[in-house]
């Protein structure tokens, strides 16, 4: 039973501060567009000397600024559904979002001492871990407790990457985000698909599920260890390839054929497959399976298949569904142009992966991202800023 203690007080809040998904989805999407524009201007030689925009900044902001905001917004909202306990709202939510915003501005502007955004960002993720963890522990929902160490991992990596700006740390963070999506996506995508078509969900093969989760953890741990001591890249590559193969076996059971009839579903399935393809490419690059191809370019293609298609595409699909459901609307009736937004994100992935390192890959993928997420802001931004249409709190 959802615990709402004071309905009048709840309705007195501005709609933006009633649920975590509202400000964090909105802020994360807007910031992704701003950050990509600034990065593109820098690549074109039109950047500002007053800003910290660089390749490391670009990676940091898309991982911790954009994906981090969406992950926290999703988990802090989902914990209400999981536990029946009220999600953070009001002043607590304003403080949480303020920490996120201070980090974004601090990392951007050279005049701000670096320790300030580092502290603000670490505080953001630690506070999120506490808010989610406290609710999960209160109802002893051990199944979802894994999100707490994941958020704490975000905090540690945010500080480490914010100070060192290391490319391997950015890849480790990318793998952390991807692992969270693999775990949560493996739960919700087959469920959404079966429910949409009134089909009985295929029973999960437990050893396959455990193998997928275990390989995610193993890849993260061994990759982290490789930052501190020598680890043969072959082993990292073998783990990435094995993880990709296990994921193929998992998602091949998710009624893909039926999902292709429904944009709100094929956007999840196809982008999940793009993430799997990225893992396989990453493993191939680390093992050296495709030696005629430049290893750095292959790794970059793999990283962006995971980042743009896997993470960016799945995020767009999920925040669309969450926004509809949590504002009292049906996920089966998306706003006009939603399908176009999904197609644009797929096109952005293909442009970035297949056309790089030509300059057209950067500006075309950026333009397609801006158009895709611009549609989200146009169609779903007003929903995030307005009360639920069914008059319920949240």
Describe the protein.
- The mean pLDDT is 93.
- It is globular, with a radius of gyration of 20 Å.
- Helix 4 packs antiparallel against helix 5 and helix 11 runs antiparallel to helix 12.
- It contains 14 helices and no strands.
- The chain folds into two domains: 152 residues, no CATH class; 221 residues, no CATH class.
- The two termini are 15 Å apart.
- The chain is mainly alpha-helical and 394 residues long.
List keywords for this structure.
single chain, 394 residues, mainly alpha, 2 domains, globular
Radius of gyration, in angstroms, nearest whole number: 20 Å
Low-confidence parts? none
Structural class: mainly alpha
Tally of distinct domains: 2
Largest sheet: none
Roughly what percent helix?
over 70%
Instruction: List how many beta strands DSSP finds.
Output: 0
CA-based shape: globular
Short description:
With 394 residues, the protein is mainly alpha-helical. Helix 6 packs antiparallel against helix 7. The longest helix has 32 residues.
Produce the secondary structure layout.
Blueprint: H1 7-12, H2 21-43, H3 55-83, H4 90-108, H5 115-138, H6 147-164, H7 167-196, H8 206-226, H9 233-251, H10 256-259, H11 263-287, H12 295-326, H13 338-355, H14 359-384
């Amino acid at each position: 039973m959802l615990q709402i203690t004071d309905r009048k007080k709840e309705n007195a809040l501005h709609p933006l501060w009633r649920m975590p998904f509202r400000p964090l989805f909105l802020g994360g999407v807007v910031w992704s567009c701003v950050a990509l524009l600034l990065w593109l201007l820098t690549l074109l030689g039109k950047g500002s000397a007053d800003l910290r925009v660089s390749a490391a900044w670009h990676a940091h902001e898309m991982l911790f600024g954009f994906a981090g905001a969406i992950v926290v917004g999703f988990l802090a909202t989902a914990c209400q559904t999981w536990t029946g306990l009220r999600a953070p709202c009001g002043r607590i939510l304003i403080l949480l979002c303020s920490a996120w915003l201070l980090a974004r501005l601090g990392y951007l502007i050279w005049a701000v001492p670096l320790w300030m955004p580092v502290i603000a960002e670490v505080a953001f993720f630690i506070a999120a871990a506490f808010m989610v963890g406290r609710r999960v522990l209160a109802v002893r929902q051990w199944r979802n407790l894994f999100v707490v160490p994941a958020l704490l991992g975000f905090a540690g990596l945010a500080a480490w990457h914010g100070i060192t700006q290391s490319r391997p740390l950015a890849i480790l963070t990318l793998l952390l985000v991807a692992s969270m999506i693999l775990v949560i996506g493996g739960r919700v995508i087959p469920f959404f698909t079966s429910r949409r078509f009134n089909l009985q969900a295929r029973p999960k093969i437990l050893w396959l599920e455990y193998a997928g989760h275990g390989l995610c953890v193993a890849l993260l741990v061994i990759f982290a260890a490789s930052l501190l001591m020598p680890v043969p890249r072959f082993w990292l590559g073998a783990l990435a390839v094995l993880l990709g193969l296990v994921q193929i076996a998992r998602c091949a059971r998710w009624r893909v054929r039926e999902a292709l009839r429904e944009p709100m579903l094929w956007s999840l399935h196809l982008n999940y497959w793009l993430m799997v393809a990225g893992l396989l490419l990453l493993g191939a690059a680390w093992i050296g399976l495709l030696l005629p191809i430049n290893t750095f370019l292959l790794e970059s293609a793999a990283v962006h298949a995971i980042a743009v298609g896997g993470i960016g595409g799945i995020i767009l699909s999920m925040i669309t569904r969450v926004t509809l459901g949590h504002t009292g609307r049906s996920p089966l009736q998306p706003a006009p142009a939603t399908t176009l937004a999904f197609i644009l994100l797929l096109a952005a992935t293909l442009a970035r992966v297949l056309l790089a390192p030509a300059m057209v890959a950067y500006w075309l993928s950026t333009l397609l991202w801006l158009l895709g997420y611009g549609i989200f802001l146009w169609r779903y931004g007003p929903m995030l800023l307005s009360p639920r249409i069914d008059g319920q709190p949240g």
